[in-house]
Amino acid sequence: MKTARTLALLALCYVVVPLALGDNHYVISLIVAALTIGGIALAWAMLGNLGGMVSFGHAAFFGVGSYASALLSMKAGWPIFPAMIAAGVAASVASIATMPALRLRGPYFALAILAYAEIFRILATELKWLTGGAAGILSIPRLPVIFGVDFGTKVGGYFVVVTLVLATVGVYHLIRRSPQGLALKAMHDSEDATRVVGVNATMLKALMLLVSAFFTGLMGAFNAHYINFLEPDYAFAGQWTTLAIVSAIFGGYRTLYGPLVGAVMVYLVDQLVFKPILPQGHQLILGALLGAMVLFSPGGLMPWLMAWPKKRIRKEVAHAQA
């Protein structure tokens, strides 16, 4: 059953969507943007769900990844895809600077990471010799052509981002099922108890921060080569964090696919449905929808979707028995 679902998902992502929407560049661009947010939401959920830490500053890792890949490809002559991987590593290295905040808990950790995001933005603005400062970087190399496939096109960019997102899902799944993932879940109930049995809680949290930062930086690197332009206020914008948080909560950040489903639903519905209806205030409708979701389904959309068929089957069985 799981294999069938996996094959169906791959067919949907790599065959159905490109064939059905490949000629509609506007919709494909929206899907790419939604998947980019979905990738950040998944990385955010890794830290929030497994690490037990709520971050308001993932824009820091997104921005570092964006600039690292752009600079490596432009100034060091690196090929695009190796530069993107290196940019993810650079984001992980940047996250080391935030690790003193691991001693903090709850809102204090979240605010500390937010402060680091602002610090990185200021650094990108002031280091004009490296980043171009507030003027930004123009003509960032686009995604390459490999074996005759042009990844620099809208559809090519879609294939790259969907691959990155599915890779993030795969790593998230492996971590959840690993002994370290079980230990992280146990920490949610009682961190002190897990320390007593020999679990190094601080080390596990640090590892989750590194992994989360890597995938966030990877999404930032992709975005830089997809739009071919960067400037600090965009690369380190708070929207990269807030949209990821909203998507993860809306879809169900404690589930594997919830953050991704939430990102696709939130962004596409907002852009394709709410924005045409209310061009100047469509975010208000989205906010009301999110509020309703939190009130009536605190676990998010995915738990509700998974529970609905089971309830329907139970009702049918009860009706048949009656």
Question: What would you say this structure looks like, in words?
Answer:
The chain is mainly alpha-helical and 322 residues long. The chain has one domain: ABC transporter involved in vitamin B12 uptake, BtuC. Helix content is 76%, strand content 2%. The protein has 15 helices and 4 strands. The protein has helices at residues 2-21, 25-50, 59-75, 80-96, 107-126, 128-131, 154-177, 179-189, 191-196, 201-227, 232-235, 239-251, 258-277, 282-296, 301-321; strands at residues 137-138, 145-146, 149-150, 229-230. The chain has a two-stranded antiparallel sheet with strand order 1-4. It has a two-stranded antiparallel sheet with strand order 2-3. Helix 4 runs antiparallel to helix 10 (201-227). The protein starts with a helix and ends with a helix. Mean pLDDT is 85; it is low at 316-320.
